């Protein structure tokens, strides 16, 4: 029996940063499915005013209503990237594994 599990890793990075190998920008559909995990990686309990981008669209932090929008503009400074892997090792700080 294989003990490895599929892990979904999320990370918040500056909008202009290059995406590391193996990672990609999260889609809006994925963000809607994993909204709680996105909020956690954005540290929503301490940072209610975040606005993060996805491949298309954005999520506004609790201070802005915690709502999704279909597009984004210059108000966004960060994006959520995603990586899926089969691994049961612990993850570095700042990465949420689902």
How does this model look, in words?
The protein has 98 residues and is of the alpha+beta class. The chain has a single domain, classed as Pertussis Toxin, Chain B, domain 1 (Roll), CATH 3.10.40. The chain contains two helices and seven strands; from the N terminus they run ββααβββββ. Strands 1, 2, 3, 4, 5, 6 and 7 form a seven-stranded mixed sheet that branches. A hairpin with a 4-residue loop joins strand 3 and strand 4.
Number of DSSP strands? 7
The CATH topology: Pertussis Toxin, Chain B, domain 1
What characterizes the major β-sheet?
A: 7 strands, mixed
What CATH first level would be assigned? Alpha Beta
Return the CATH architecture.
Roll
Distance between the termini: 21 Å
User: What is the gyration radius calculated from CA atoms?
Assistant: 14 Å
Structural class: alpha+beta
How many discrete structural domains?
1
Low-confidence stretches: none
